[in-house]
Amino acid sequence: MLSPYRVYRYDQLQTPAVTAGTHAVLIGAQNGLFPDQGFNVEGEMGGLWAGEKKVCDGFFFAIDDVPLLCADACEVNPAATAFHYRMQEQGLHVVRRQYIPDGVNGCVIELTIENGKNAPRMVEVSFTVRTDILTVAAARGEDSMELGRDVGEYDEKTQAFYARDSRNPWHAVWGADTKNRVLQADLPQTVYGFGNTLGKGVNGRLFYRIRVNAGAQATMRLFVAGGYASRSKAEDALAHLRENAGMLIEQKEARLAALMEKSCATLPDAALERGWNWTKIYGDWLTRELPRGGVGLCTDLPEHPSLFGEGFAQAMSALLPLGGGMLVQDMLRTLVRISEEAQLAPGRLAKRISRSGRIRQIGGVKESALFVALVHRVLQWTGDKQFAEDMLPTTGLCISYLRRATRNFEDIREDIVRETQLAIAGQAYILRMCGEDGDALIDTLQRIAPAEKAVMKENAPLAELAAWHGRAGHVEQMIGCLSTMAKAGAPGMPGAMKPEESSVLLSARSAAGFIWPMTESLFGIKPNAAGKTIAFAPHTPIGWDGWKVENMTIGSAAVAFESERISPSQCRYTISCSEPGWHAIVIEQGEGKAYPIEGTLSLVMGD
Q: Distances in Å between the alpha carbon of 418 and those of 155, 207, 454?
């Protein structure tokens, strides 16, 4: 179903691999191993994480007493990661496919063994999990918590291993489908063929035997889950996975297939096309549901798996052109709710939130200004009046806080002038959407001295260069910057924009520097969903015959944009809209002209 987005890797397999879900994430390497990696807690940021708790450093297999040390190929798609092992001496081909179902604190591993010989055979499977149950706070000695050594035991009745941290009520579980009975279970001192990773974990090993017919395949499912407060909850989780694993992966694939249909781009530049489309995948991989309800965006992987965090407004804004308007609204509602429940000072908001919903850092004036500006930007894409009314009390408090902190906007720090201007303009827009007068704020905005015009340095980050070239109309130079960004991520992860920190694999805010120049300076799209208008100023780079982006959600409409070159200096641009009443605003001879989009609108424009 997701085959157009499947990527195969045969080299540089030591680079990281991510398998993610709404409640958990699994981080290892593309060779199928789980090396110690990361710096936030040195060497401990890989493995399986469920919420804010780490479950294990990884899991390891041996087939007929031969450890699966290094995959021959890695296969990545939005829903799952698969590792291929050629066991030529044994006449076997083994595929280890792993995925994390939505709503589950764990992962499913499907082990498929293909018998290349012309006789049936019994194959022995050794499955070892190396636990490392911890939280970042406990590992760093914060929150008065101390990590204990993990202890584990095998339970014959449930045919599964259970482990817990000896000092904290954190439990993990692993086992296989009920049709696969355990032959033997033990607690080896080291992982056979692999050695031990760092930490205070325990090794729990299970042995199985499966029959594989001549020239045929046999598949077994195995499960690892954790982060539970009691063993009984771990047992329930294992039972749920055993009973529903097949249905859960079908549901996840269907959800992701629908996601990939939104804002689907077709571009002459393959790197840019993959970069745009895969950004939707990475946004999904970084989205987390909270235990007490609500949703947030993970800062990055693997170093800072908290929610929101530095540059949260920039990060969340990148989801808007990709069909994530309603999702961002839910994230902002979550941020407001958690901030209100913590009884923060009026106008101040949480900046960094743990996966369990605890506030780790409180934002200041900059974050409050960025919050108002983001609400404004969301409303431009969704036109949701109810959301505007829901946010108005909080944005009003943020503006009041800004007013107090800047002496009625007379003494604005130089580093927040732009953010303050965006917040004031945003609040005026929100007020008007709610039927109130925003003119006083516009007057205030006009009295603020503009920020000094930034001089673009030659060694500026590519995202800043791309945005600067886009605003200046240098579309070819902008495309050059974006192409470099799209190729700079980890091999096997197309379009994973190179983050600011070398130890970070995926960064939520890195995508914004790619998505917005594409949206506003290539596709030329700046919507005002409340007014059912789209300011349209597209470009088609020299050498491109055209481009297309389909099923872009603006308000409640699905809109498509297409470029077709008809001469060296002109293109035919077509806009299709699923709803009546929309207009495209085009600048002609220095003035804006509104064209109704009655189903389809075709315009011939120069570059």
A: 61, 61, 11
**DSSP-derived secondary structure letter, 303:** S
Question: pTM to 2 decimals?
Answer: 0.93
Q: pLDDT tens across 152-174, in order?
A: 999 999 999 999 999 999 999 99
**Nearest residue to 347 via CA among 328, 326, 327, 369:** 369
Return the number of other C-beta atoms located less than 10 Å from residue 602's C-beta.
12
| Distances, alpha carbon 83 to alpha carbons 76, 94, 221, 278, 596, in Å | 9, 8, 15, 20, 52
Secondary structure E strands in 89-166: 92-99, 106-115, 121-135, 150-155, 160-165
- List all residues 6 or more positions away from 589 whose beta carbon is below 8 Å from its beta carbon: none
Q: What is the CA radius of gyration of the chain?
A: 26
Q: Which residue has the higher pLDDT, 327 or 443?
A: 327
Q: Is 396 left (phi over 0), alpha (psi -120 to 50) or beta?
A: alpha
326 φ, ψ to 5°? -65, -35
Average pLDDT score over residue span 436-448: 87
User: 163-222, pLDDT tens digit by residue?
Assistant: 999 999 999 999 999 999 999 999 999 998 888 888 899 999 999 999 999 999 999 999
CA dihedral (25, 499, 370, 40) in degrees, to 10, reads 60
Q: How far apart are CA 313 and CA 328, in angstroms?
A: 10
- Quote the tokens at residue 601: 């609108």
Query: What are the residue ranges of helices labelled H in 438-518?
Result: 439-447, 462-472, 475-486, 512-517
Strands 171-176 and 217-228: antiparallel
Distance from C-alpha of 145 to C-alpha of 129, rounded to nearest angstrom = 25
Q: Over the chain, what is the mean pLDDT? A: 93
β-strand partners of 527 = 534
Total length of the chain: 607
Among the listed ranges 24-28, 453-457, 492-496, 542-546, which one has the minimum average pLDDT value?
453-457
Other Cβ atoms closer than 10 A to 261: 13
DSSP 85-102: EEETTTTEEEEEEEE--T
How far apart CA 366 and CA 386 sit, in angstroms, is 26
Going from the C-alpha of 165 to that of each of 102, 144, 226, 233, the distances in angstroms are 25, 16, 11, 15
